[in-house]
Amino acid sequence: MSTRVKIVAAAALTAAISTGLAVPAVAAPATAIPAQVPATTPAIGAAVTEAQWLADVSAAIAPARAYVEQRTERSTGEKPAIVFDIDNTTLATHFHPFTMPGMAPVVELAQYAHAHGVAVIFVTARVDFIAPVTRYSLEKAGYTVDELRGRDLCDLFKPVQQYKTEQRIKVEGEGYTVIASVGNNWTDLNGGHAEQTFKLPDYDGLLS
Fold it and tell me: The domain 3-199 is classified under which CATH number: 3.40.50.1000, 2.60.40.10, 3.60.21.10, 3.30.56.10?
């Protein structure tokens, strides 16, 4: 194999590992809680502008904000937590892959939750050895990071949905009640172990 081919192959493998796209998702269990979906979704294959995406994110996150406001009013004696995905859920990595800003409605939800006693926990398919960079990006965008969970070597051999479900189970094992899970992919949400799930747009996989 030529040096150039080796370099291209290595780059492709690194990209696949960092995004989690190389691992197939498993089917959702029948008990999964239906996620909220945006009211407007472009046709499959249609180009999506950043403005359209942000409008759809705002529409999808509004029910989550209303739910968290209502849920925190009755969380006395609990350790509530909200679990967020990262890429194209809390950070705008598709449209801004280098600066990775936060999305205002999601940042505001996380800030509200934290201010009202809810732990803000991030579960990502990113590998954990880049956790310091990931944490920096989240905090720069305005998030409080109570926990950040990335994939270790063993997790790379698991379907993403299985890995993320296991992480929510571990969060519960720490005594938390996961009141909500927010993500833009079904593998972020299916598998249970969250009272409610809220799905942001991914346009049939266009935004991973």
Answer: 3.40.50.1000
